[in-house]
Amino acid sequence: MSSDSSSSTSGDDPTDQNPNPNDKSIDATEDRLQSIALTEPDVVEASSCQEPSNGHRKWITERVPWSRGNPRGDRVKLVRAGKHQVVFLVKGPIYLVCISCTEEPYESLLLFLIQLIMIWMQMLLILTKSVNRCFEKNPKFDMTPLLGGTDVVFSSLIHSFSWNPATFLHAYTCLPLAYATRQAAGAILQDVADSGVLFAILMCKHKVVSLVGAQKASLHPDDMLLLANFVMSSESFRQFSNLTCLLASCRTSESFSPICLPRYNPMAFLYAYVQYLDVDTYLMLLTTSSDAFYHLKDCRIRIETVLLKSNVLSEVQRSLLDGGMHVEDLPVDPAPRSGYLSPHLGQHRPVTDSPDRFGEVFSGIGGPAGLWHFIYRSIYLDQYVASEFPSPINSPRQQKRLYRAYQKLYASMHDRGTGPHKTQFRRDENYVLLCWVTQDFELYAAFDPLADKAVAIKTCNRVCQWVKDVENEIFLLGASPFSW
Amino acid sequence: MATSGNKNINAKLVLLGDVGAGKSSLVLRFVKGQFVEFQESTIGAAFFSQTLAVNDATVKFEIWDTAGQERYHSLAPMYYRGAAAAIIVFDITNQTSFDRAKKWVQELQAQGNPNMVMALAGNKADLLDARKVTAEEAQAYAQENGLFFLETSAKTATNVNDIFYEIAKRLPRAQPVENPSGMVLMDRPAERAASASCCS
């Protein structure tokens, strides 16, 4: 399995793969993470390259420990090769490798491991952990054919490491919707869950509209991320859906596929009924029964009828256009306002609120006190909300850089060696970063690099108050199938 | 299983074949009249329905377009169980896909519904220059194994509707006639008649 064409080294011994440190198969000029997974017989040794004082590069080979005899089967090895860091994670017979050339500090090891584990779990979602048995029977077993056609799934996941905070927060995010709208969606999903569906999940892109689990069944945010990534990256689920046509009769394709939720049960397949209800919105009904297709099809018809009748689908589209929380809208007055709703959320958007106002009024400014962006993670809900990006960080490159900064912040807050910290304030040439961890929430905020510390802290308090004021609309509250 | 009520027949149809043989493309052509050059690999199986009028009946096909990827092979029975018809698809420019098609035929003969109507589709018939499997070879194999064979092209639409139409014609029309063991008398015939007439 390879993440992209430039790292398609699966099955090769790394010692042969890169005898020349200048070989472009590890591209030092590109600031990116490459990840590959190798199987046990493939990797016996790894090489590290050191630069002695005479300038001649010398390869030093280290033995990577085999996992035999280790009941948990997890081993980690970090190899430094010049500017590169190579991280090996051994999961039973599967070796996961990531090569980084971003010169990250040591604390990034935690992030690399999180990412490698996500890649491993994405593989389990497709094959289940019983693939290990194939290696027990035959150590030379070639896993590549079993993963045929899934390159896009892995490359999409690896791409999401640089834009989707869910990959390191272990939380999911909701599409902002009026409380009543989300309740209407939840009610019909609950209805089908009571009829033998294990999980019913309605999503719009990578955001949750509503989700419901059968009694006692809990869905882990990681499983949701991997499932959404699997569905969204596979064109097959969208095929035949005439995207210009919103009538149900225009869509003829429904998919029924075995999938495994690694956090729910890594050994067993569930069966997923998937259908797109419009261009971005899709319904996933999960069951343990391989015979349930026609039942799930009936459930989908019932759900879709209710969603159309109660205008949920049009509200979803509207919310997608409006976006979520904009830092420019942060209320100036921190006093609690009963019944206050953000102009961008729910149905109470004032008509005077013209969509082009940012371009004119707030261009290049961001929010009050130099606030550029924030992520608020509710610990007991397993959910997070991230603000929209304002103009100071509107390019994908800037956004990626900010996420990387957040990731480092997250790693330093959660590193078992030093943390958990309560608050952290960092200032560099790009941002002022503020992180605040309590029992109830984690807040990550980015400010203009010249922002004043005291004002930034005050602003963070206002952000938390704001999130609480609109939590009915940005979070899925109550009836959550999550275990907390 | 094909079920008939008046002259409406519901028939479950499954497409089987190697990766890239063109199963999804055949279905897309049949159901939508469309063709895309780079069809993405199917995940699990996709379900479609399409109705076809033949001389004496209306046939509603419930089509299972299965994934050709190896990891889904063990799940195929889930999709072909109870199917009234199967189209086994291979790519005429790929010998391996023909070998794989033969394996599917064997599996259906061993595990499938014994009355199943089976069609062999030699797809990509527009790529004559790259042909690796001759029409004669496939025809001979089909005849030996009781299948009917057509060379199809999802790209040019050649023979695509025809293969589904031919299947529709061959589906058994009235189940009781085929039952050689005779009429089984029920304890409550009136109730049975009532329940049979309500699902038209």
UniProtKB/TrEMBL annotation, chain A:
Region (Disordered): 1-31
FUZ/MON1/HPS1 third Longin domain ranges (all copies): 370-470
Annotated ranges, domain FUZ/MON1/HPS1 second Longin: 196-302
Pfam families, alphabetized: Fuz_longin_1, Fuz_longin_2, Fuz_longin_3
Originating species: Liquidambar formosana
Similarity comment: family membership: Belongs to the MON1/SAND family.
Occurrences of domain FUZ/MON1/HPS1 first Longin (ranges): 74-157
Name the UniProt record assigns to this protein: Vacuolar fusion protein MON1 homolog
Low complexity bias: start-end ranges: 1-23
An individual GO BP term: protein targeting to vacuole
Role noted for this protein: Plays an important role in membrane trafficking through the secretory apparatus.
UniProtKB/TrEMBL annotation, chain B:
GO terms under cellular component: cytoplasm; endomembrane system
Subcellular location: Endomembrane system
GO molecular function, one term: GTPase activity
Keyword Nucleotide-binding (UniProt): yes
Main subcellular location: membrane
CDD domains associated with the record: Rab5_related
Transmembrane keyword on record: no
Record membrane topology: Lipid-anchor
Keywords: GTP-binding, Lipoprotein, Membrane, Nucleotide-binding, Prenylation, Protein transport, Transport
A GO biological process held by the record: protein transport
Family, similarity comment: Belongs to the small GTPase superfamily. Rab family.
Record's protein name: Rab5
Organism listed in the record: Liquidambar formosana (Formosan gum)
